[in-house]
Automatic annotation (TrEMBL):
It comes from the Eukaryota. Residues 19-217 form the MARVEL domain. Keywords: Glycoprotein, Membrane, Transmembrane, Transmembrane helix. InterPro entries: Marvel (IPR008253), Synaptophysin/porin (IPR001285). The lineage of its organism: Eukaryota, Metazoa, Chordata, Craniata, Vertebrata. Pfam families: MARVEL. This is SYPL1 protein.
């Protein structure tokens, strides 16, 4: 759609908010807002998981592992319980899993959707007359919307699955896999993990964008092309 801004045959800028009052423009605004929430809640997340360790000469010492986007958990190491590392029985302990591909796919698509919505809204507001007179523009808009809707479905399911695994890897279920906690005289107890409500929101926002694309935007764009 940005190509219309430099097309020789373009009639020029005419600010008109008419399309924003129609479902096509209004839904594009909603997509723009949802995409912001999607990449902000996922890409901006930072958290940590904490366990209590008791070992030789150390009682209930807190050890933490800080993790964040893009969730390469296999590179995140727990802090040592004490300078002597439990008498040498505590080795470097890492979280399990690398979920960067799902997280980055989701965030990248959200950013691209954000940018496309801006471009589309510029055309809707400033070049409504060109959009309505040139049948290729609605067709291009429709094609991009169809592709984006499919990619949102894929990325949302992928990210939702990865998020479930992230919760497992950073929760109490991670303790049985820590070999240092199995050393004689050493016990580990799960303490806490940062709330992941914001990540839940990112999945919900991704689902919202998918349903918006599927149920409303595609229908209205197809209707406009047929007119």
């Amino acid at each position: 759609l940005l190509s219309v801004l430099v097309a020789p045959r373009m009639a020029g800028l005419r600010v008109d908010f008419g399309l924003l009052l129609e479902p096509l423009g209004f839904i594009k605004v909603l997509e723009w807002i949802f995409s912001i929430f999607a990449f902000a809640t996922c890409g901006g997340f930072q958290g940590e998981t904490t366990i209590l360790v008791s070992c030789k000469g150390v009682a209930n010492k807190t050890v933490t592992a800080a993790f964040a986007y893009p969730f390469r958990l296999n590179t995140v190491v727990f802090s040592a319980p004490d300078p002597k590392r439990c008498g040498g029985t505590w080795t470097d302990v890492y979280l399990v899993g690398n979920f960067s591909s799902s997280a980055q796919f989701f965030v990248t698509l959200a950013v691209l959707s954000f940018l496309y919505c801006i471009a589309a809204l510029v055309v809707y507001i400033g070049y409504k007359h060109v959009y309505q007179q040139n049948s290729k523009l609605p067709l291009t808009d429709l094609a991009i919307t169809v592709i984006t809707a499919f990619l949102w479905l894929v990325s949302t399911f992928s990210w939702a699955t990865a998020l479930a695994d992230i919760k497992m890897s950073t929760g109490a279920s991670a303790i049985p896999g820590i070999e240092s906690c199995k050393a004689p005289g050493t016990t580990c107890r799960f303490a806490s993990v940062t709330s992941m409500k914001s990540l839940n929101v990112s999945v919900v926002q991704g689902g919202n964008i998918w349903f918006v694309y599927k149920d409303t935007s595609l229908h209205n764009q197809s209707k406009r092309i047929s007119q």
